Amino acid sequence: MADPQATPPDVPEELLALRHQIDTLDRDLLALINRRAALAQAVGEIKKKEGSVVFRPEREAQVIDGLKAVNPGPLKTESIAPIWREVMSACRALETPTRVAFLGPAGTFSEEAALGFFGSSIVRVPCASIDDVFRTPPPARPTSAWCRSRTPPRAWSPARWTSS
Question: What is the value of pTM for the model shown?
Answer without folding.
Answer: 0.72
